[in-house]
Each structure stands twice: as C-alpha cells, then as structure tokens.
Design goal:
The protein has 129 residues and is α+β, with helices and mostly antiparallel strands. The chain has 2 helices and 4 strands; from the N terminus they run αββββα. It has helices at residues 2-28, 92-128, and strands at residues 44-50, 56-63, 69-72, 84-87. Strand 1 (44-50) and strand 2 (56-63) form a beta hairpin. The longest helix is centred in the last third of the chain and has 37 residues, at 92-128.
C-alpha cells in the first residue's frame, strides 16, 4: 500500500513538473515578438488523465493560437511597415494562477511521498523489534 502511494504520487509529480515547465515557458515568452508574416509564440497547455492502475499521466500537450495578437511597436526591429509585431496571446493572470496550482500540487505530492516513506520506515522498525 505504501509503495502504491509513492507510485501514484510519483506520477502526479511528473505531471505537475511538466505543467510547471509549460507555464514557466509561457511566462518567459509572454513578450516575445514575431514578424506579422510569421507565427506568434504558441503557449503550451498540459492535459492530464487518470491512469488505469491509479495515478495520473500527461494525455496531450496542446498549443495556443499561432495567430497571437497584433501589437503596435514601431521601435521593434521585427515591426512591419505599419509598425506592428505579432505577440503571443497569453494572459499573465491565468498563467500565474496555473503556476500557483501546479506548484501547490507538486508540493502536496512531495508531502505524500515523504509521509509514505516515513510510514514505510516505521513499519520496518516494527518488524525489527
């Protein structure tokens, strides 16, 4: 039972780490400009699903809209003749909320692993006595 808890929490740690990676990448590129004739940076979104034997797994990685949004920035070297660049369509408040949820989920699952390890060690001590 203890090993099941560690295994299940381990799968959740992997999903939360991938979620954290995606969100941090999205936030790092929130101001990445592209020429108007190119694609904007596409945000990554992680889709998780429950596993058959317990745990959770990344089902898919979705990407945001390559269309992005046009922003007026005539000083940008990538600007077109009208002074526009293509920016990613990423909402910082949504990304920050996702960052907090992913971080708290990661922390909760590390606590599960730690408590399961402590329980396993206590069971070994009982068996030695």
């Amino acid at each position: 039972m203890t090993f099941d808890a560690i295994g299940i929490a381990g799968t959740a740690l992997t999903v939360h780490r991938k979620w954290l990676d995606a969100v941090s990448d999205n936030l790092a590129n929130i101001n990445t400009a592209a020429p108007t004739d190119g694609a904007a940076f596409q945000a990554r979104y992680i889709e998780a699903t429950a596993g058959d034997g317990g745990g959770v797994y990344v089902r898919a990685t979705r990407f945001g809209d390559a269309e992005g949004r046009l922003a007026y920035d005539p000083e940008n070297p990538l600007a077109d003749e009208q002074g526009y660049v293509r920016m990613p369509d990423i909402d910082m408040s949504t990304q920050m909320s996702s960052l907090i949820m992913a971080q708290r989920g990661y922390e909760a699952n590390t606590a599960v692993v730690d408590r399961a390890k402590t329980t396993y060690e206590a069971a070994l001590q009982i068996g030695r006595n």
